[in-house]
Amino acid sequence: MPFARKSHLDALAMSLLLACCLFWGLQQVLVKATVAEVAPVFQAFVRFALATLALVLWCRWRGIALWRRDHALGPGLLAGALFAAEFVCLYTGLRYTTASRLTVFLYSAPFWVALLLPHFVPGERLRGLQWLGLAAAFMGVTWALGDGLWGAARAAQPLAWLGDVLGLLGGLLWALTTVVIRSTPLGGIAPEKQLFYQVAVSTAVLPLVSLALGERWSLDISAFAATSLLVQALVGAFASYLAWMWMLAHYPATKISVFVFLTPVFALLFGAWWLGEPVTLPLVGALVLVAAGIVLVNWRPAAR
User: Distance (Å, rounded) from C-alpha 260 to C-alpha 277?
Assistant: First the structure.
């Protein structure tokens, strides 16, 4: 049965998005801090394996059927493959660039959502000031990318541009996942099952990618790394992504996608505080522009 959808973001949606963005900003820093002990793609595999187990237990407790035919198997597998590829880009990119920079590029996803989704779901079309907001955010990301190619970021990390490009590709893959969910029968099934397709396919695919990359597998790790994996799995890949799936089912995807531009702000703050990552003028300018983009895309004139 189709979900009742709202035309704008209410207080509940904004509260959930703020909590998710705050954690997702911290999560990139957690991943970066854990890479020294756990290889990146193997880290993602462990994360999604634990999340899949948690999701199956949740669905059994809530009486949500995961194995019933839903006519969404094909789109579900496609969404899962796109989701897995996104996280290969994300975790690998953190080898080459800072958590704050990569997050700016990962959250280019709303550009792609706004450009692609209206071709499949006309009601998601942006208008007027919303396109101006999208343009402002795009300028911000372009500014940050230039810093990685020619500016101070390149001097500090010669391969920062590669991490930036992987982050940008991850954003495109995230957007394509959103388009598949919103424009196929996958969008009409329970959010829990939408998420199950993504984490279960990732659990199956990521160990193969990790082996192909020659990563070392070991869980002989510190208490910090073990805690990081548990937090990434249970809070990140399970709770926050389940909330995201629920919001996609109830609110306009273009508007919630642009709202998550707040995540790079949190990633910048956590990265500077925890990892001592450099805060450059282009990066700060990029964050100001994407914040302005959020306001404009979600702007609604007062009712007369």
Answer: 21
